[in-house]
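Running this now, will post back.
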Amino acid sequence: MKYLFLTIPILLLTACRSDRSAYPIEGDRDILFTEIVLDTIPVRLENTSYSGHSGVDDGRIYFLDQFFSYLYLIAPDGTPISRSMGMGRGPNEIPLKQTSAATVRDRELLILGSSYDYCISEDFGTPQRKEIRVSPEDSSLEDARAYTSFSEILRSGNGKFYYNIYSESPYANPVEHSADYFRNAHILMEIDSETGTARPIGRFSDYYTENHSRLKHLFGTVYDLTENGDFVVSHQADSMIYVSDRDFRPVRAFGFQGTGMNTDYAQAAPGWDGFNDAYLEDTTHKGYYYWLEYVDETDTTFRSYQKGSHTDRDGLQIYRGSTLIADVEVPKGFCVAGYIAPYYFSRMNCDIDNKTIHFYRFKLTQP
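Update: finished.
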């Protein structure tokens, strides 16, 4: 059984490769912190499914319930401020059956649906449902219809929004055609927020093109956008972080491997069964990078990573500019969500069994 992908019967041709080797390598180590002190902040929300999308915007934490579509705004001390919206077609309700991902930037809520649809709510007003526009048919990895979305990473800025993509075509996929796939496939979908026009963008790093067979089951990408529209990208098994401009032209690259990461990845056997076996083995027991957040206010990049099953802790790298200033242990699944001075905040941690929600906050203050 293939449990990573949905079938898309699209015929694909190869696309022109961009010059990814042009990234100037920067960065150094200047370790300023050997640990961070996390404050645990409990949050009590009414009528929640204990599952949702969270982040930081405009001095507040937001939480959009994945199933009920309520939008909660929360103070930095964990006090609920307001609850609005909800699923439905009435005034100020969200007309989507399911929220696949959500983000808030500059008080604009953007929600990705489950079938080529999305909603935009400016200043938390009435959400406007729109459809993603893709060409009716094409046979190229340059065409938006060749891809489908995966993961819940959604970013927005400059009148556009972005989400992760992959292709499962029998003629171009990372399982059966890894060399061509990592050379020619795109990693993100760019959507014009006003028109819904879709365009696949971005490429895998040279590390993947050179190690396509060994890494074909670890094709995930984490990323963020800076205020000026640059992309900050990290691939699942690549220790480098790549900065590109809004047209994905190389700006610079930097980064170091996380401390204590087990990178003895499995060699996937041919076919889908071998791919899935290797994927489960390595995402369960090996190390990989799973989250990235860039904070414009302090020019700081946070990258979370799994070390492996040999420890019950994950790792967090902190880069100031291109310089690694910390590589510390954090709880499993820890993801930095943003900054409200003087604290950095994590995403929400939801425990449906115990019906609890909390987030972490911490400072980067040198003694």
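The CA atoms of residues 51 and 233 lie 26 Å apart. More later if anyone needs it.
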